[in-house]
Amino acid sequence: MFAKDNELYLRAVEPTDSKLLYEWENDLSLWQVSERFAPLSQFEIEQFILSNQDIFVSKQLRLMVDIQTPSHSFSIGTVDIYDLDLYHRRAGIGIFIDTPFRNKGYARRAMIMTQNYCFEILNLHQVYVLIAADNPTSLKLFSSLEYTETAKKKDWLKKDGGFVDQYQFQFIQPKKR
Fold it and tell me: Phi/psi of residue 24, each to 5°?
């Protein structure tokens, strides 16, 4: 674990996470968000976990979001840092929280820890998110985190026989005094 608040922490993906990631990655209801068109095999997920997880090489990083109780810990979601651009000092970020743990403040806390990692460790200038217009929970989350809407792509995402807009939000690291 490298980022932690009271009970929530972010950690690297471990081989023991493969079964849970297999379930989440193959959930058909999430495919529109992840732009997935085919299931992933257990083998593919295991290979991803065992592959080079050096963010500076792969330009991406997946972290597990865990809750730690006095008796045990368990995973409730993932955070992705992707499209890392070290020259321009920016990256995209995304979050997934499993259904039973949504609307409890975990996503907000995990995003704050992720931002801190991006700014303090990776030395980024900004992070951005891409959100479908029909995802009010994510729109509310990132607005509450003071992300600024910087783009709207019309009819960008195909969904349920139609198209929806996609928003881009950015958060620029506050100037240090």
Answer: -65, -45
